[in-house]
Amino acid sequence: MIRVVYRTGEEDRVSPKFLDILLYLRQVQRFERKDGWVVVGVDQLRSPSSPAAYSGTDQRRHKPTPLPAPAGTGFWSGGSSHY
C-alpha cells in the first residue's frame, strides 16, 4: 500500500492501481515512494502514455491501467484544471 495525501489534506493508504486512478483524476497532492515523498506537479512522475519520459527505475508491480480522457473535459490537453 502507498501513503498518499489528497488535495483536501486527508491522508490514506491505497493500492498502486488506485494511485494511478487518483493521479489521473488529479486528486493526489503527494504520495510516498521508497526514497521519499513525491509532490505532484513538482516532482517527476511516470506516465502510462509516455513511459520514456521517466528516467528512474520502474518499480511497479502491476501494469498501468489505460484510462481514456473523459469526454469534453480537456484532460491532458493543457486545459485548465477543474479541481
List keywords for this structure.
83 residues; alpha+beta; 23% strand; globular; disordered C terminus
Describe this structure in words.
With 83 residues, this protein is of the alpha+beta class. The chain has a domain of 39 residues. It is 11% helix and 23% strand. It contains 1 helix and 4 strands; from the N terminus they run E-E-H-E-E. Strands 2-1-3-4 form a 4-stranded antiparallel sheet. The longest helix is centred in the first third of the chain and has 9 residues. It is globular, with a radius of gyration of 13 Å. The protein starts with a strand and ends in a 44-residue tail after the last strand.
Integer average pLDDT: 76
The quaternary state of the protein chains shown equals single chain
Structural class: alpha+beta
Shape by Cα distribution: globular
Task: Provide a compact summary of the structure.
The protein is an alpha+beta fold and 83 residues long. It contains one helix and four strands. It has a domain at 2-40.
Write the layout of secondary structure elements.
Blueprint: E1 2-6, E2 11-14, H1 16-24, E3 28-33, E4 36-39
